[in-house]
């Protein structure tokens, strides 16, 4: 048998790699950004012509909305023509989701920027180290409100966290198929939608039965906030406990470990990160409440470290009272209100950072 091999001179040349083109069925990475810039340019031209015709300034919000709509239409059409309908729909949905995210961030960024810009002007060493006792007009501070907020929120957490956590443990570990557990779940769902003012009225009514009408105490505010915290703690803890695999429980039972010890040593350590995050979210949810604290803790200009004696000021109530009861000069009261709001945001941010740190430290280790 004779094998005929082609000489190198007679072999066909290898095809050279062609550069990526629009006809290759894939848009280059810069294409969506170019379409976005072009969409804003078209929208700017449209609104610029309308502004010159009417003599008004350019509507920035309308310009952004129209640019987003133009971008969605263009990216869908171009991608469908070049890449096919499936990829075009994918890019359209991606654009819609990204636009929704940006739209959701607008009020958040706006609120944060407004509070920071106005709150920094009212911050000072005196504001953080003094109260409003015997202060009229300029000067004074919110130390009594900061202390009151921390004490009332701490007492509310001490009341609500054990109740909420033990309730969640009962619902997940002991109450499966139980009528009592069904009733508790229904009541927790109802409590989730209770208005904050109703919680304040409930706490006031309970204490008024024993101490008479007109009573105002810091612990009353803690009870009102605890009523709002308990359903959030129950729901978040319940979901985290349900995420623990049953195999871990069964492995502990197989070793002869009692159920209560399995919960303490296996279930809770596995879900402690999520439970901590849920608890911090519940604290962040109630720390800014104003209506229940107006009814229960009241308003005062002096320091008060005793939850069981006298009125106690909090940061939300302080900001409200400063803004609503402006004196002379009015700007001093407004600055104190914004500064109190800024301090409150800082406290909430610190709590969330602590929650993330605890979740990271106590999260189950998956490696060896």
From TrEMBL:
Transmembrane segments: 30-54, 60-82, 94-121, 141-172, 184-211, 217-234, 266-287, 337-359
One example GO MF annotation: phosphate transmembrane transporter activity
Limits of the ABC transmembrane type-1 domain: 146-355
InterPro entries registered for this protein in UniProt: MetI-like, MetI-like_sf, Phosphate_PstA, Phosphate_transprt_permease
GO biological process: phosphate ion transmembrane transport
A Pfam family the protein falls into: BPD_transp_1
Keyword Protein transport on entry: no
KW Cell membrane (keyword) present: yes
Assigned protein family: Belongs to the binding-protein-dependent transport system permease family. CysTW subfamily.
Protein name stated in the entry: Phosphate transport system permease protein PstA
Source organism of this protein record: Microbacterium pygmaeum
């Amino acid at each position: 048998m004779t094998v005929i091999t082609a000489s190198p001179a007679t072999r066909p040349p290898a095809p050279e790699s062609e550069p990526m083109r629009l006809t290759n069925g894939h848009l280059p990475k810069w294409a969506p950004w170019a379409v976005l810039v072009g969409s804003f340019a078209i929208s700017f031209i449209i609104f610029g012509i309308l502004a010159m015709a009417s003599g008004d300034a350019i509507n920035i919000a309308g310009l952004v909305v129209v640019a987003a709509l133009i971008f969605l239409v263009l990216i869908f059409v171009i991608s469908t023509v070049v890449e096919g309908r499936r990829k075009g729909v994918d890019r359209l949905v991606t654009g819609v989701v990204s636009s929704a995210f940006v739209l959701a961030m607008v009020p958040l960024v706006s609120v944060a920027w407004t509070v920071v810009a106005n709150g920094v002007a009212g911050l000072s060493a005196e504001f953080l180290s003094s109260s409003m006792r015997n202060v009229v007009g300029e000067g004074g501070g919110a130390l009594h409100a900061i202390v009151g907020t921390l004490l009332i929120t701490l007492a509310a957490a001490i009341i609500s966290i054990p109740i909420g956590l033990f309730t969640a443990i009962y619902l997940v570990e002991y109450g499966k198929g139980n009528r009592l557990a069904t009733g508790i779940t229904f009541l927790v769902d109802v409590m989730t939608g209770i208005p904050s003012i109703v919680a304040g009225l409930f706490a006031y009514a309970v204490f008024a039965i024993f101490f008479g009408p007109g009573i105002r105490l810091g612990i009353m505010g803690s009870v009102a906030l605890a009523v709002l915290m308990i359903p959030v703690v129950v729901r978040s803890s319940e979901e985290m406990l349900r995420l623990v695999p049953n195999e871990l429980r069964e492995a502990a039972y197989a070793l002869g470990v009692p159920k209560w010890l399995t919960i303490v040593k296996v279930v809770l350590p596995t879900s402690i990160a999520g439970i901590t995050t849920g608890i911090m979210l519940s604290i962040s949810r109630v720390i800014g409440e104003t209506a229940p604290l107006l009814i229960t803790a009241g308003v005062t200009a002096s320091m008060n470290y005793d939850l069981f004696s006298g009125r106690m000021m909090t940061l939300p109530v302080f900001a409200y009272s400063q803004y609503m009861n402006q004196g002379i000069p009015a700007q001093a009261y407004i600055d104190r209100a914004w500064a109190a709001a800024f301090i409150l945001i800082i406290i909430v941010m610190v709590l969330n950072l602590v929650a993330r740190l605890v979740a990271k430290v106590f999260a189950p280790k998956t490696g060896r």
